């Protein structure tokens, strides 16, 4: 454990764990494992997309991994993690998608995301996600 890890609060550690698992499951192009990181009633909002519920997210990711996002990986760097209750955190992060064969997020495709994470039955899950283009 690094000194940075030791300085993290329980919620910060939980947030990083969820986002690390998202990185791993996305990189594996596993739509079921990605969807399982979301609550049953989660919402996901992106330009032109509104998904309501884990099953919508599962279907969307399955189609994406079979098509335009095959071999992709997410880029996600948290800017701010805020505890807003014993079982809730809001995260703002710099995000993007690194497409197969690329070394980084394509210029102009950088985004800022807001995540709401919640603890349910002892497990931290994503309850809401929204992203928008940067500047």
TrEMBL record:
<dbReference type="InterPro" id="IPR032710">
    <property type="entry name" value="NTF2-like_dom_sf"/>
</dbReference>
<dbReference type="Pfam" id="PF13577">
    <property type="entry name" value="SnoaL_4"/>
</dbReference>
<protein>
    <recommendedName>
        <fullName>SnoaL-like domain-containing protein</fullName>
    </recommendedName>
</protein>
<feature type="domain" description="SnoaL-like">
    <location>
        <begin position="8"/>
        <end position="129"/>
    </location>
</feature>
<dbReference type="InterPro" id="IPR037401">
    <property type="entry name" value="SnoaL-like"/>
</dbReference>
<dbReference type="InterPro" id="IPR011944">
    <property type="entry name" value="Steroid_delta5-4_isomerase"/>
</dbReference>
